[in-house]
User: Fold Orotidine 5'-phosphate decarboxylase from Listeria fleischmannii 1991.
Amino acid sequence: MTKPIIALDFSTAEQVEGFLAKIAEEQLALKVGMELFYSAGPAFIRELKNSGHAIFLDLKLHDIPNTVERAMRVIAGLGVDMVNVHAAGGKRMMEAALSGLESGSKSGKRPKLIAVTQLTSTSEQEMQKEQQIKTSLLDSVLHYSELAYSAGLDGVVCSAFEAAEIEKRTHVDFLRVTPGIRLLNAKADDQKRIVTPSDARRMKASSIVVGRPITQAENPQIAYHKIVEEWGK
Ligand code: C5P
Assistant:
């Protein structure tokens, strides 16, 4: 997914259809999260795929290895391009997720599997107190990235601020998929540490996820093209 991935943070298929009509573009990269998936279901994913779009299904699985493997087998059958798990589920769970995706991929093309390390909503203090992890937040993110890499995953979701160090500790081809993207002088919404698309590229992100700057724009098509252009630089 080299194009900016648009986060479809909508609650119904109708809202998404209204939004996509405004972009009027074929072959977009779209992220479907829990809200939309729980509301619109697998049938809508197939519809988006049939329209030619690439899909990152952001369901963040975290369960025992057997359950995750079986769920991933079903997810692979939807023909999506990227999915994710929580690295906190452990190496065995991540390996099981991969194996489920492999056995469920009909075309032989397995969806990319990436891991969530620490949620960006988690503060270092919360992590240390609640998860009883005694390292810094960054060290925990790096540790989980290395664990995901050693389990054979294709990458992680991370902040642009962590991307270069993750690349250094893993491999240039290990994906660093980064949200928290805004155009210069745009409002941050609830994102704390934001970067522009060209900063993200410079900071070694391999893909960017962009939601509100496109979905809430007055003209989503213009906003999307601005982001594509900056990201491509
Ligand atoms: O609207 P905005 O561009 O902030 O949306 C970013 C998208 O990326 C949302 O779907 C959000 O849930 C997701 N995300 C994030 N930070 C993470 C992981 C995912 O903003 N660490």
